[in-house]
Fold histidine kinase.
Amino acid sequence: MSDSSPHSSPNFEAFDTLATMVAVVQADGECLFANAAFENAMRLSRRAVQRSQLYDWFVDSQRLRDTVQGVARNAYSSSRFDALLRRGARQALPGGQADELPVHVIVSQTEFEDLVLVELIENAQQTRQDREERSFDQVQATKELTRNLAHEIKNPLGGIRGAAQLLAMELAPDLQEYTQVIIHEVDRLQSLVDRLLAPHRHAPVVGDVNIHEICERVRSLILVEYPRGLKMVRDYDTSLPDFRGDREQLIQAVLNIVQNAAQALQPQIQAQIQGEGARITLRTRVARQVTIGKQRWRLALELHVEDNGPGVPAEIRERIFFPLVSGREGGTGLGLTLAQTIAQQHQGMIDCESEPGRTDFRMTLPLP
Ligand SMILES: Nc1ncnc2c1ncn2[C@@H]1O[C@H](COP(=O)(O)OP(=O)(O)O)[C@@H](O)[C@H]1O
Ligand SMILES: [Mg+2]
């Protein structure tokens, strides 16, 4: 808080827990407070941000100037618009470009007369959060539908199989071929339905889980399957604490993701190209103030499974977490659905960024 402030040090520290950038300014644009997210985004120390004029940080600040003054004058209580934030401008080398960040700006009144609250939401962040919330809802809805459908299919299957067996006993051997087809197809459906229902059937076995132990297990399982031509890189943040969870389920989830990566890399593994061969990286990181679904967590861990394969086919990129969506011959399309369900049972989530040459599946799990 600047000494020249006429206010009795209102406390804005609570804004530090927000993921969006927040600044408290005077009508003249002098910045009295900037929260941690703002500081991070500007790549500046708080002291430097707080001594400056908010208007200096915008590419074209006229709109902001007018709005802040309007709100401070009580002409309106709140207003929003899009703008371009200029960051790192102060350190930009001569001739160097400061980079610009598109933001959505929300200016509103505070309880303190002539102090104005300026909230900045990264446009990319906003769309990403929207997308995540939407896909979270969609996954929930699909899961429910799938589960109900699976139950409806499962119930009559036993009856059909039994009837086919009885029929077989009545039929001449040369006709039993047909009942065999029925029984065989019923068994196939049965196992598909069982796999659709699998993640919901067992009560979770909760214990202390170490994410790196999980990674190591998955790594060794994959290396047994792909002993040559696949490089598994480990990049662990060993300061990550243990957490409560179902170890076996989490191994299954991570295994499904890594197995997909290895399958996508199959041509590269076979070619064993010199130099840049097939590579999967397991990376763990700590994350702060993350939103998962609709809940915010102070602390979480991120496990990235990154591969240098061809990327998720564009046609299915938006749907890979839905059941029965598969981009490969003989795939069931259940691997990622199950992985996502397991992550969600741990209050976490999995998302994916993919382009040719780099696919990154990120599993985020909240930490205590
Ligand atoms: N790392 C990856 N690289 C490229 N495509 C991937 C990757 N991971 C998943 N996919 C795509 O997502 C699809 C769905 O995966 P999944 O749910 O495990 O089902 P399945 O493996 O049975 O096809 C895969 O078929 C594949 O097309
Ligand atoms: Mg799979």
User: Anything to note?
Assistant: Residues 129-201 form one domain.
